[in-house]
Amino acid sequence: MRFDRTQLLEMLQESLSGPELFVVGLTVSDSAVRPKITAILDSEQGMGIEEYARVSRRLAHRIDEAYGEEASYTLEVTSPGADQPLTDSRQYTRHVGRKLQLKLADGTEKTGTLEAIEAEGIQLTEEIKEKSKTKTLPVAFIPFSTIAEARVVISFK
User: Fold this and answer.
1) Which residues belong to any copy of the Ribosome maturation factor RimP N-terminal domain (predicted)?
2) Nearest-angstrom CA–CA distance, 24 and 29
């Protein structure tokens, strides 16, 4: 059974319960026996397990309607892991006040505290290590268009 990713994405969008939820990723494995469909969702406020279950049931129902109940697949509806990069500008909202590690399109890297989100980018207080000290630079605006990858720095302090 071959699943159409575009059709699955449309079904997933229809399965979301409100505008606060958004799709971060959708993958379909190449397995011909029992493909795995993985939907990665997020929201600016975070999601509870009940919401994931609700979306999963709605999506499974739509898949069964479109492909028939005999279609064999595994469905996983999940959130992006803590180690996953931020891929949607809406994901930044939850992380204001946290430290980010950025890789920019020009190849440079920046680490600092996310101060604020704007329509076109973020405000970041960059931290630079000089010998044994950390120097904090003034807040700088970084456009989303220049961010190649952004990750939350996980701290266990």
Assistant:
1) 21-83
2) 17
Q: What is the pLDDT of residues 27-62, one digit of tens each?
A: 999 887 889 999 999 988 878 889 999 999 999 999
Amino acid at 10: E
Which residues does residue 152 pair with via DSSP β-bridges, in sequence order?
100
**Domains of the chain: which residue ranges?**
5-78, 89-152
What is the SS3 assignment for 39?
Answer: strand
Query: What pTM does this model have?
Result: 0.79
Q: Which fold has domain 89-152?
A: SH3 type barrels. (2.30.30)
CATH architecture of 5-78: 2-Layer Sandwich (3.30)
- The two beta strands, 36-43 and 109-117, are unpaired
Hey, what amino acid is at 37? I
Question: Cα(77)–Cα(53) distance, rounded to whole angstroms?
Answer: 8
Would 5-78 and 89-152 be classified into the same CATH topology? no
Which residues have C-beta within 8 Å of that of residue 37, sequence separation ≥ 6? 3, 8, 26, 27, 28, 29, 63, 73, 74, 75, 76
